[in-house]
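2024-03-11 09:14:02 DEBUG pipeline.ingest accepted 1 chain
2024-03-11 09:14:02 DEBUG pipeline.ingest length=533
2024-03-11 09:14:03 DEBUG pipeline.predict start
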Amino acid sequence: MWSELDVHKKEKYRSLMTNFASLSEAFSQKVESEKTLEISESVAPIVNSKFQETAFQRTFGAIGEDIANTSYDVSLKNDETQKYLVGIKSFGIHSGDQKIAQFKASSVADGWSIILGKAKSNAEILGDKNLADKENEPLYREVAMKIAKLRNERIASSKELIKGFDASDTVNVEAVYHVLMPSRKGESPQIHVGETDYFPIDVENIEILGSTALRNSANFKFTDGKHIYKYADADSQLFMNFHNKEIIVDTWQVEYVADAFSYFENLDKEISELSTGLQVTESVSWMIANKHGDVEESSGYNGFDGGSKLSKVDNIREKRINSFKMKYKNEISEADMNFIISHLQDILLKSYPTKEDKKKMKQIRSELRDKLVVINNDKIKKDIFALVYRPVSEMYIPIPESRKFHDNNPNFFGKDVGTFKKGTKKLALDKDERTFELEFLPSGNVITVYINQDDGKSIQSINKQGILGEWILRGVFQLNEYEPLTGERLNELGINAVRLMKFNNDSRRIGLEFIWIDTENPPKDAIGWVSHF
């Protein structure tokens, strides 16, 4: 990536970072020598990670990525065919392993500590690291495979977010780490620019390297032939060896300034050259799951899971059941056919008006699904699923406490879009008057959507609902067909919320991004249940 970036922008980025680091000596500590003379210690150049991230975004036009559990900080569009996901990091050139991910919720839910507790017990009994590593290899491998699965799913999800839903095969998305590595105290002040690939873990080539130490046998290292990883059980953290000196692609000299006040007095001359760019003027964010951690069933992101939309007029459903029976009567046993027809009749011909009734319907549908697994006929499965489920990629984006939001922000989606017919839950404007363009960040994909349903609770696609659902459900959330989105899956991927943004440029669309919200410290723009904390 670094070699492909604009040389003038790289020079501006270098200037920002080295100018910031040039203040480092002004904060150096003074010590007393034996002769009581004050001696100023040399210090390492200071690289502030937040400033680094902001400088990278503003210089290269990158977009910030507010997603937890990955090291992706920004996304960068190089051209129409090349996009990058960038993990921005800073650490000393002589530093060791660096944290790259955390799996706290998944490790607890899946019992990783229990597995590694067995490894610790084995090590205590054997009392020899080599013997213990050999005995614990299957335990370490089990956890390493779980780590690899989650990490790879997160990487795939993030790549889909930047690639977008209408990307052709010509769009290439690469993930890289961009790191700044300052020299240490006593060395010539330099900042080394490093870059290394952000690879998925190669599951087929995982090799367990053993525990980090006999007495820390719940922590272990493994490699996939590309990177060396270390997992620390206490905080469920994954570390990686960056091979710091091997990844250097550029080196900047830092000239310290002694008078910080003079620097600050002239700072405005330097930053005035930077374009302020687009500014977010309004934003709103909300959790995808409810306060119990569950994602709504049968609607929203799980719209496919609702009852069949097959028409009931003119005995359409009965005719479709009979048509299925005639089509496959010679392909499966009479007992299996009777089981299927009985369940289809229960699902399609009976009414399920209440929530409890719908639970019964889903139980019957689950029994039918289990039977199809045993029958193992893809054509039959496809035809039956088309009867008993809604379209597999059907979905909309639900707005929590939508009536309250629209009443407080009637013009957020456009003039009077959030207004209602007096005394009703019905939106006042016609469909065409409550449409707008939604831009998905960071991919830049744009889709025409509208506010719909009672209380204006949904954001729905006008004519690309299937494409949108396919991308979000299969790509972003890495779900199989007919697999519901759950709170557990959100935790695994580190995506639990949505943010909408309006910009200072009135002609720009409303932006949408998938983010992570810390429920104990929600952002100021949060609505829904998390805003009440």
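2024-03-11 09:14:41 DEBUG pipeline.report The longest strand covers residues 172-182.
2024-03-11 09:14:41 DEBUG pipeline.predict end
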